Amino acid sequence: MPQETAVYTHGHHESVLRSHTWRTAANSAAYLLGSLKPDMRVLDVGCGPGTITADLAELVPRGSVTGLEAAPGVLEQARAVARERGLDNVDFTVGDVHELAFPDDSFSVVHAHQVLQHVGDPVRALAEMRRVCAPGGIVAVRDADYAAMTWYPQPPALDRWLALYRRVARANGGEPDAGRRLLSWARQAGFTEITASADTWCYATPEEIAWWSGLWADRTVASEYARVAVAGGHATEEELAEVSEAWREWGRQPDAWFGVLNGELLCRA
Ligand SMILES: C[S@@+](CC[C@H](N)C(=O)[O-])C[C@H]1O[C@@H](n2cnc3c(N)ncnc32)[C@H](O)[C@@H]1O
Fold this sequence. Notes:
Blueprint: H1 14-20, H2 25-28, H3 30-33, E1 41-45, H4 51-59, E2 64-69, H5 72-84, E3 90-94, E4 107-113, H6 122-131, E5 133-144, E6 150-152, H7 156-171, H8 182-188, E7 194-203, H9 206-222, H10 224-231, H11 237-251, E8 257-268
Parallel strand pairs: 1-2, 1-4, 2-3, 4-5
Antiparallel strand pairs: 5-8, 6-8, 7-8
Helix pairs in contact: 1-9, 7-11, 9-10, 9-11
The structure holds S-adenosylmethionine.
């Protein structure tokens, strides 16, 4: 049975935020951008460190964006990003997507990027997102699909990384292969007008490979994910160290290439 509130698998260690702060509206929400209008009211659920949130605020200059997060700590970083960019149409609040503290029909767009894979009840989350979205508005969600990630070269240790990550994420109450399930969840949440698409992130330049392999090498031994993997009996510290070293070794390969498949939905509220 899904838990209503899952544990966020990654936590907000620096090695995790290294990945999140790379994200922009252009590289992570392109499927939504054509639907935005300058005066829209946007809710960004699970906004994390807020780089996408800040981009969305720039795209609705006569409207507003609210970033909502379950973890209060990371909101300090999100507020700093908005301040540094001189944005005065964005605010942040702590909350849980399963039970949003907003009246019905409060927003014109309700967005969640890489969030539904981490929540205990994604169907209820989508129903809540729909409730606070005005009729005719848009609920937009995008999630990676871990089982569909692919890479080269293919050392066995990176297969162990993927199997371990998926085990830990599920033990935390999440669904790491969320991308393929978004459409099904949205239909269960009552949406009938849904545009489904998929998009990829591809890391192939020396800089991208160094960044991606380095953050996973660090995350595997130093983040909340590492702590939960050991505490839950999913891996020993020695096994995590081996996987971490495998990421570093992979990152030294001149032919290294990594592809991430993301499922995405635009749902009419
Ligand atoms: C993978 S991060 C994505 C952050 C940001 N949207 C981005 O793409 O950079 C997922 C975020 O969702 C937040 N989160 C997890 N469960 C949540 C819940 N039930 N309600 C609100 N936020 C939640 C986590 O704290 C985390 O910051």
